[in-house]
Amino acid sequence: MKTQFLRTLRRLGFLFLAATAPVVVGSAGWIAPLHAEEQALKGGTLRVALLGDMTNFDPQQFSTVNFHLIKNLYDSLIEYTDEGEAVPSLATAWAIAPDNQSVTVTLRDDVTFHSGAKLTSADVAATLAKAADPERGKNVYATMSIVKDWTTPDEKTVTINFKSPAPQRQITDLLQFLIPIEAAGIATVETVPAGTGAYLLDSRAVGQGLTLKANPNYWRKGQPIAEKIEFTIFSEDASASAALESDAVDIVYGGTSRSAVRLQDAGYQVLRGPGPLVQIFRINSTRPPFTNAKFRQAFNYLMDREGMLRVGYAGLGEVVALPWAPASPAFDAAYTDEFAYNLDKAKKLLAESGLTPAEQSNWKMLVWGSDEPTVVISQILQSALAEAGINIELDVRQGAEYTEALLAGNFDATFGAVGNVQKFPSRVATNSIYRVVKNPVLKDPHPHPDYVAAIERVNTTSGSDADVKAAYDNLNRVLVTDAFAIPTNSYDTGLIVASPKLGGLALDIDNLFVARTVGFQ
Amino acid sequence: MKKIASRKLSILGRLLASKGSALALIFLVGITLAAIFADFLPLNPVGQKLANALKGPSATNWFGTDELGRDILSRVIFGARTSLVTAGGAVMIAALVGVPIGLVAGFFGGWRDAALMRFVDVLLALPAILFAMAMIAVLGRSQAAALIAVGLTGIPSFARITRAQVLTLRKRDFVTAVEAFGGTATYNMFRTILPNSWSPIFVQVVVLCSVAILLEAALSFLGVGVPPPTPSWGEMLRTGKSYLHEAPYYAVLPGIVLTLTILSFDVLGRALSGLLEGHRDPIIAPKGEGATP
User: Fold this and answer.
1) Cα–Cα distance between A233 and A205 in angstroms, integer?
2) CA A428 to CA A420: how far, in whole Å?
3) What is the spatial distance between Cα A94 and Cα A169, in angstroms, rounded to a whole number?
4) Is the ipTM of this complex over 0.95?
5) How many CA atoms lie within 13 A of A518 on its CB side?
6) Whose C-alpha in A282, A491, B11, B86 is 20 to 30 A from the C-alpha of B288?
7) How many CB pairs under 8 A join A and B?
8) CB–CB of B53/B69 below 8 Å?
9) Closest Cα in chain B, distance from residue A239 (Å)
10) A52: nearest Cα among A261, A275, A255, A241
């Protein structure tokens, strides 16, 4: 009996071992590459698929068409971790004055530009001068609005003075946004890169692609790993995905959410960065019927945000009723619940607006026809409006035709995106939708003075946490009350879909492609 | 009159006698009736059910649903209306402008012919799709704009065919006879020559219908056709191609219907051409004068 029992036990033991062996072996195989990846990523040529050509090499242009280049050809003064912690890059230290009126930045002394010249404070000063120039500062110009002037006490030190005490996060945001350009190359930076980045420009074929080669004098030891990056432009997302699946490329950068979800299911790596964009229903509140506040506020409840996220972005993102990513200090999830899709509440506000049905329907929604998600979510809103008794037409325009109408403010309402939603809250005011002065659509003076005041309060509150939170809360409430921009959802820009054979994939805080850590396993 | 009616019946009979043209005719009649009476069918081409998005063909949704949960079959049928109206309107514009141009050019010849034909050559030199896109850029994106744009691209073919037909008839005895009896140029063009030129023009109407449907679909596919949510086959192909992996039926089924429609018009046009050329028209005399053999 005892022998029988032992035999059974032994058999069970064998069965257990047999059953768990694959798991153990599999685990070993799973763990091993992780260590291998950390220890020995191999170099080679990284082949990256893009969906559009770059516009220029100016790091102050800072738009999605340059996202694949900026952090490879250039470095920032400081960087953020995914959690928003500021870490050194070209600056080894940054000391904020006790009165928050200035910051003193110390530069590394082992950095050279691609030309071979050493990085000095004169280069940073020249970069600041370009950024502060309304003609040349491009996307960085608005961020420079807090800067009064700057000095360069020595070759490795730059002191930036502010117009008024600036909150710490606003200061580090500025430093993260400052990408030193070689002073001698500033005049030609649009066509000739002049940075300190891990890669140098090798060649470019306009409309076809671009090749970068490793910078042999790069200051980060052991980087970059890949010796070469070949960017190839594909006209269609489907073509880029097919190229990845047929091993013609190693990475698709900036593809659609839907392709990313499909390819993830097929075993490819998908990397979502910490810097999403937020989709906004942008209202021209200077035109009727949008001059009516109640009418605008109804749109807070007319957005089927869940549906828009699911259909437009394959569910990759978050529904939001405020223009902040969850990592933003002003993010408040309660607003998402408070302003969930609710046709009854919307109808009540529409009735309170006092507008006739004809007046409520007397506008068109401008739609960017080249962007599939926008076309889809515009139709979702159009359908919700029809249920609320508002029948409008979509004014679908392609490419330049759309941009022209947008820049001229020649529209009633349209969907558009804002970035920097994970940073200091007033950074959102650098986007044309939320700009407080020289707003291309709302013009000067801004038609919503309480919003301007709320931004000013956020910018000038650097006291206790309670004071700062109160300023953020006030801004959030003003945003939904003024309702000239209705956020719907966050979504990923600069999505990376990569072959399983790659390791070290990274995106920076703004979802810019960082290739220096990427290698082959 | 009786003769003409019986001849028409004879052509229809011979069309139906051929399997290919009979099938094409039945398909076109079916799709046209569906498009005309779509409002009376239990279909909703714009009703969204987001929770029901991209579902495959089923008993409820025979062609499946699109990314917004709309019934694809409904959109195909209402899309037929868009395509047929655009094609019909475009062919009408092309014929109304092109036929008189060809008639005047062929009848008078000389500087009128040269001027009108150079105008037609200019139209012909412009690639149809580019010309249509330029027209839409000027007129704005709407069904009317698409209709006009497609119609203008069809003018040269009507003008050239009519002119060629007029040139063959211009020196015929019955035309000379009408002139000798004091018939004016207008009378001769519209009452003597035109009624005897209908056969190739009618074939051209059928052929141009397929071209117009294809062009309208191409414009929608390029994103400059009828604006959403109005269903259009080209727009369905455009959106559906983005979902080829997840929902292949989305692009394939409207694509099949579009292909069959164009194919049917072509088959019909070819059959008509054969039938009408095989049996030359008896000369149709102006009203009240009887037909000359």
Assistant:
1) 10
2) 6
3) 13
4) no
5) 29
6) B11
7) 51
8) yes
9) 11
10) A255
Q: What is the pLDDT of residue B182?
A: 85
Residue in chain B nearest A256 by alpha carbon: B242
Q: Take residue A45 and report the two structure tokens written for it.
A: 């040529």
Please give the structure tokens belonging to residue B7. Answer: 């001849």
Structure tokens at A98: 């006790």
Choose the closest CB to A380 out of B68, B141, B239.
Answer: B68
CATH H-level, domain B2-278: superfamily: MetI-like (1.10.3720.10)
> Coil, helix or strand for A116?
coil
Of B32-46, B132-146, B242-256, B276-290, give the lowest mean pLDDT range. B276-290
Distance CA B194, CA B187 (A): 10
Across the interface, which of A311, A394, A401 has its CB nearest the CB of B67? A311
Q: List chain B residues with CB under 8 Å of A310.
A: 50, 53
Structural domains of chain A, ranges and CATH numbers in brackets: 45-54+197-274+496-520 (3.40.190.10), 75-186 (3.90.76.10), 277-491 (3.10.105.10)
Please indicate if any CB of chain A lies within 8 Å of the CB of B282: no
Indicate the pTM of the whole model: 0.81
A370 interfaces chain B, CB cutoff of 8 Å: yes
- What angle separates helix B143-170 from helix B110-125, to the nearest 10 degrees? 140
Q: Which of B17, B33, B61 is nearest to B249 (CA)?
A: B61
> In Å, how far is B146's CA from the nearest CA of chain A?
14
Collect all residues with Cβ–Cβ distance below 8 Å to A129 and sequence separation of at least 6.
none
Residues B119-160 have pLDDT tens digits of 999 998 988 888 888 888 888 888 888 888 889 999 999 999
Q: Which residues of A touch B141 (CB under 8 A)?
A: 395-397
Residue pair B275/B11 in contact by the 8 Å Cβ criterion: yes
Residue segments in chain A with a per-residue pLDDT below the cut of 70 = 1-39
